[in-house]
């Protein structure tokens, strides 16, 4: 039997996932957790399960906080409505990342992936997990931003550029500028490289919003929507930039 825990703060979603997992006779559900605080306590006091299904955004924080405080010895399959946390998820022993609403075939594929990592009767430690996991690049399609006490989903195709200022990375849309939780390095790893390009240390631009490109005395890009600051292409990036424009 595969001992399994669900981390989910929305009761309907938790019950739905439990029903879906009941279709797998090899899975034994041994715990259900609803918060970061409860998760830290549970993993501190109990034997770690082999498999964990975990939402990311919980009422009192991110589920990442649980595993940073109590390193897990099991595999994690993240379940979430937001795909902006993909890169961090794969740094924390994740073997899969399922976007809600979860489809039966996606869940089945994730369970089969887990089973393929562990030969029957064997156990694997967290260090072995890191060697076994195949990290596949996931393309970021939505970004979760905070506006006061509210959250908003912004589609990446609505974003003309990302830029850093005072150690914070912002995103620009037609309507306004929003702060994000990303670094530019993380965005380079997760954005669609056919659409987005890092022109310098401060800016990542979206090709769909390029209005004009000046080439003298240096390469300067004008976007349909951009902050007041001038967007220039670093000298060492000019060739890659030109290749990207026609790729």
Automatic annotation (TrEMBL):
Q: Which Gene Ontology molecular-function terms are recorded?
A: DNA binding; phosphorelay response regulator activity
Cross-referenced PROSITE patterns:
HTH_LYTTR, RESPONSE_REGULATORY
Any idea which residues bear 4-aspartylphosphate here? 55
Q: What is this protein called?
A: Two component transcriptional regulator, LytTR family
Which SMART domains does UniProt cross-reference here?
LytTR, REC
Ranges where the Response regulatory domain occurs? 3-115
Q: In terms of domain of life, where is this protein from?
A: Bacteria
Q: Where is the HTH LytTR-type domain?
A: 143-247
Q: Please provide the record's keywords in A-Z order.
A: Phosphoprotein
UniProt feature coiled coil, ranges: none
């Amino acid at each position: 039997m595969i001992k399994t825990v669900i981390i989910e703060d929305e009761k309907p979603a938790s019950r739905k996932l439990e029903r879906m997992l009941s279709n797998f006779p090899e899975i034994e559900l041994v715990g259900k957790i609803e918060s970061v605080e409860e998760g830290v306590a549970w993993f501190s006091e109990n034997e770690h399960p082999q498999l964990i299904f975990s939402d990311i955004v919980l009422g009192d924080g991110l589920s990442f906080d649980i595993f940073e405080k109590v390193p897990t010895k099991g595999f994690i399959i993240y379940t979430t409505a937001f795909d902006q946390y993909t890169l961090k998820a794969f740094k924390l022993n994740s073997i899969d990342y399922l976007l809600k609403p979860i489809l039966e075939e996606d869940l089945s594929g994730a369970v089969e992936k887990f089973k393929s990592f562990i030969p029957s009767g064997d156990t694997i430690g967290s260090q072995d997990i890191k060697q076994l996991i195949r990290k596949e690049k996931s393309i970021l399609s939505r970004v979760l931003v905070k506006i006061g006490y509210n959250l908003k989903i912004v589609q990446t195709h609505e974003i003309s550029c990302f830029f850093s200022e005072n150690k914070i990375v912002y995103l620009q849309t037609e309507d306004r500028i929003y702060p994000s939780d990303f670094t530019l390095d993380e965005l380079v790893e997760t954005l669609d490289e056919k659409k987005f390009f890092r022109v310098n240390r401060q800016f990542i631009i979206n090709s769909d919003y390029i209005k004009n490109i000046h080439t003298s005395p240096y390469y300067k890009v004008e976007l349909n929507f951009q902050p007041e600051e001038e967007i220039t292409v670093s000298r060492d990036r000019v060739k890659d930039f030109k290749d990207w424009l026609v790729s």
